[in-house]
Structures are given as structure tokens and as C-alpha cells.
Amino acid sequence: MTTDSLPADHDHETPDSATDRVHDTSWSANLELPRHAADRDLVISEAVDAVEHTTAGHHVNLVTHGDHGHPETYLYDALAARFDGVEYEYVEQCGCGGHVTRVYVE
Fold it and tell me: Which segments carry the region annotation Disordered (predicted)?
């Protein structure tokens, strides 16, 4: 991972909650816990929540579970259908198999 992608202390046990507060900074949402592996709809729902809880001018790194494959196959269309004024890009695949998509909120 690059230093711009995820914090150095990235782990799978203590994800940032997308809905505990509005993030007035760039941040990462961990969507690769076991519960995410079992439920693609949960990944999409929590990804939408994460974007909604990111203030304009910042980005959120959506770290999605590898079991669902590349996020372009299921997440990008969901984001495009839900939001105007956001841009997203694929960053990289984590060593653990997950994927990082950076979503910029305008």
C-alpha cells in the first residue's frame, strides 16, 4: 500500500465507522471484514454511507473485500447512480486481497 492509500496501522479488526461522525478530512473505510465477505449489498450500503459522511473537498478510501472481486464490477455503478459530484478511482489491490477505491467528494 502507498502511504496515500491507507494509514500505516491499517488492520481488519478496528474499522472506521462510516456513520459515527461526519469526516471533515480524508479517511479510509474498512469494508473487508468477514461480514462484508458474506454480503455484497452490505459493502455497497456502507460504501454509500462512507461517501455521505465525507465532507466536500475530501476523499474516502473504500477498502472492499477481495471476495467480491474488482469494485468496478459492482461498486462503481452503485456510486454513480447514487451521487452527483463525486469522482472515484481505483488505487490498488491490498496484499490481503482487498481493493482500494478512492472517492473524491466535490
Answer: 1-23
